[in-house]
């Protein structure tokens, strides 16, 4: 699968038909969130330019519908919520709210 986003190539992000949709995280008791991205979960913080995507496998990046702290889960652990149409975006293009990332 090509590593693309709506902004073009970059950092291992992948397209997915459920981006922006509500999904259930079966690995975390069916917790529901908005699929924000499908990309590697890398803890390595670098200040210099990065010229290629990380070699880590992609994970699902989810955020609560009303905003808050994102969390990650295995891509195979997400299921689309019936009727989980795209969630209205905040002005910055995210699905609302700010927070941080909770890696699980």
Describe the structure in your own words.
This protein has 104 residues and is mainly beta. The chain is 0% helix and 33% strand. The chain has no helices and 8 strands. The chain has strands at 4-5, 8-9, 22-25, 31-40, 58-63, 70-74, 78-80, 101-102. It has a 6-stranded mixed sheet, with no helix packed on it. A two-stranded antiparallel ribbon has the order 1-2. The radius of gyration is 13 Å and the shape is elongated. The two termini are 25 Å apart. Mean pLDDT is 76; it is low at 1-9 and 90-99.
How would you summarize the topology of this molecule?
Elements: E1 4-5, E2 8-9, E3 22-25, E4 31-40, E5 58-63, E6 70-74, E7 78-80, E8 101-102
Parallel strand pairs: 6-8
Antiparallel strand pairs: 1-2, 3-4, 3-7, 4-5, 5-6
**Approximately how much beta-strand content do the residues carry?**
25-35%
Order of helices and strands: EEEEEEEE
Q: Alpha-carbon distance between the termini?
A: 25 Å
- Binned, the helix content reads under 10%
Q: How many beta strands in the DSSP annotation? A: 8
Neighbour order of strands in the largest sheet: 7-3-4-5-6-8
- Biggest sheet layout: 6 strands, mixed
From the alpha-carbon coordinates, what is the Rg to the nearest angstrom?
13 Å
Task: Decide which structural class fits the backbone.
Answer: mainly beta
Regions with little confidence, pLDDT below 50 for 5+ residues? 1-9, 90-99
Question: Helix count, per DSSP?
Answer: 0
Can you give the mean pLDDT? 76
Shape: elongated
């Amino acid at each position: 699968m090509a590593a693309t986003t709506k902004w073009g190539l970059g950092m291992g992000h992948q397209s997915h038909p459920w981006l922006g949709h509500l999904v259930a995280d079966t690995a975390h008791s069916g917790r529901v969130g908005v699929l924000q991205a499908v990309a590697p979960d890398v803890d390595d913080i670098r200040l210099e330019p990065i010229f290629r995507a990380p070699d880590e496998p992609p994970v699902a990046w989810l955020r609560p519908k009303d905003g808050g702290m994102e969390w990650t889960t295995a891509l195979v652990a997400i299921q689309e919520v019936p009727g989980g149409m795209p969630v209205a975006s905040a002005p910055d293009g995210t699905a609302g709210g700010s927070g941080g990332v909770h890696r699980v």
